[in-house]
Amino acid sequence: MVKKPVNLTLNDSPRAAFADPGQNLLDFLRREIGDLSPKFGCGQGTCGACTVTIDGQTQLSCLVLAETVDGKEVRTASGLANGATLDPLQDAFMDHFAAQCGYCTPGMLVSARTLLDRNPRPTRDEVIEAISGNLCRCTGYEPIITAILSVAEGRARA
Amino acid sequence: MTTLETYPTMEDAARAMGADATFLGGGTVVMRAVNEGVATPRLIRVTDPGLAHISTVGEILRLGASVTMADVLAHRDLAFLHPVARQIGGPQVRNMATVAGNLFAEHPYGDFATALLALGAQVTVTGQGGARSVDEVLRDRDRAGLVSAVEIPRPRDVRSFGFRKVSRVKPKGVSVLCIAAYLPRESGRIRGARVAFGAMGPTPLRSSGAERALEGQMLDTATAEGAAAAATEGLSPATDQIATEWYRREVAGVHLKRLLTEMERG
């Protein structure tokens, strides 16, 4: 079993570790790198709990082979906060009770941040579309949608 | 244990393929098997950036094998395919899933392939001269070879193409069924009708009954009803977690009629 070296930029920091053959990016981030923010939900690309961005695009880390991100830029929910300063989205999720069990939250945050970076003033429908690949079994989505809209540019900051 | 082999070109990959290997495209299908531990021992991928290109040659739209659903949505010339690509997966899946991969996605997936089938698209297979029809590739997917590009004849009138996906969950849900219809018209009459159903058989299939009912007719309520009545001819739906075979047969005509009514209104 030959491990392969993987060099990537994770949340702006250069990181390197060895990936096992067949190891997906989610497992690699959690076990080899130690970033526990992406979650394992289904392992088949249905739930979105493992959502990360690769070179700026949201992807499902459970459906990406770890060795294929060599040289790429990966972002996860753990890169959202700057020290003790949370991303406004994280504050908004707390203020609007958008996290109950919290398991979908990191993936939701990555999808929401990617939306707002591209489209700072999304409509409600655009928010719904942007998080349609992230399942939440607790909230019924309304608090999450409200939280994301509250951060949208031109509205009161959460 | 699954090992990944990376090749610069499709030709190199085609030579390396074998019964113990699977081609890795966007990963949305193959990686599920890897995660479940049931993948082939070898995975093969190609890094040729040319495979991600979309080009227009005359009236032919050429999509490289690794063009994603998101790429389709970002391309203005492909606007008639946006309603199809938009309804596949969620945003993350659309950033990953490829046009060529959709031809090989198992039931109930393959919405994009259903559209390609209705549009009479041609498939370029590595190492094989000339293009093959999507019909032919879908009939024998296991021995199709490595698809390097898909070529879609641009509809002369984009209103002659219609697509409808039926799913229980919105906006992201698996197909109960989907329908793609290409109904070019000459002096108001349909010439060369192609109607394809997704999730109504092991692969996307054409409805011979609907096509016969539409051919040579004006697209009106009576024609739509005739096509709806014959919709399931040529189809062989299965029972799965999404719907039963009975249900799929019952609603196929209803949804075809709705699609045709929408297309009639333009």
Q: Can you give a write-up of this model?
A:
The complex is a heterodimer of chains A (158) and B (266). Chain A has a 5-stranded mixed sheet, sandwiched between helices. Chain A is built from 5 helices and 5 strands; from the N terminus they run ββαβββαααα. Chain A folds into 2 domains: 75 residues, Roll (Ubiquitin-like (UB roll)); 64 residues, DNA polymerase, domain 1 (Orthogonal Bundle). The termini of chain A are far apart. In chain A, α2 crosses α5. By secondary structure, chain A is α+β, with helices and mostly antiparallel strands. Chain B is of the alpha+beta class and 266 residues long. Chain B folds into 3 domains: 44 residues, no CATH class; 105 residues, Uridine Diphospho-n-acetylenolpyruvylglucosamine Reductase, domain 3; 108 residues, CO dehydrogenase flavoprotein, C-terminal domain (Enolase-like, domain 1), CATH 3.30.390. In chain B, 32% of the residues lie in helices and 23% in strands. Chain B has 11 helices and 14 strands. Chain B has a 5-stranded antiparallel sheet with strand order 4-5-8-6-7. Chain B has a 4-stranded antiparallel sheet with strand order 9-10-13-14, with helices on both faces. In chain B, strands 1-3-2 form a 3-stranded parallel sheet. The longest helix of chain B is centred in the last third of the chain and has 21 residues. Chain B is globular and about 55 Å long. The interface between A and B is medium-sized, with 27 and 25 residues.
Key features of this structure:
heterodimer; A: alpha+beta; Ubiquitin-like (UB roll); DNA polymerase, domain 1; five-stranded mixed β-sheet; B: 266 residues; Enolase-like, domain 1; five-stranded antiparallel β-sheet
Top CATH class of the largest domain in chain B: Alpha Beta
The amount of beta strand of chain B, in percent, is: 15-25%
Number of strands of chain B: 14
Described by the principal axes of the CA atoms, the overall outline of chain B is globular
Number of self-contained structural domains of chain B: 3
* SS-derived structural category of chain A: alpha+beta
Biggest sheet details of chain A = 5 strands, mixed
For the largest beta sheet of chain A, what order do the strands appear in spatially?
A: 2-1-5-3-4
Structural class category of chain B: alpha+beta
What is the typical, i.e. mean, pLDDT of chain A?
95
Uncertain segments of chain A of ≥5 residues (pLDDT<50)? none
> What value does the Rg of chain B take, in angstroms?
18 Å
Quaternary structure of the protein: heterodimer
Q: Give the averaged pLDDT of chain B, no decimals.
A: 96
* Total number of strands of chain A: 5
Low-confidence stretches of chain B: none
Question: How much of the sequence of chain A is in beta strands?
Answer: 15-25%
In CATH, what is the class of the largest domain in chain A? Alpha Beta
How do the helices and strands follow one another from N- to C-terminus of chain B? EHEHEEEHHHHHEEHEEEEEEEHHH
User: Count the helices of chain B. How many?
Assistant: 11
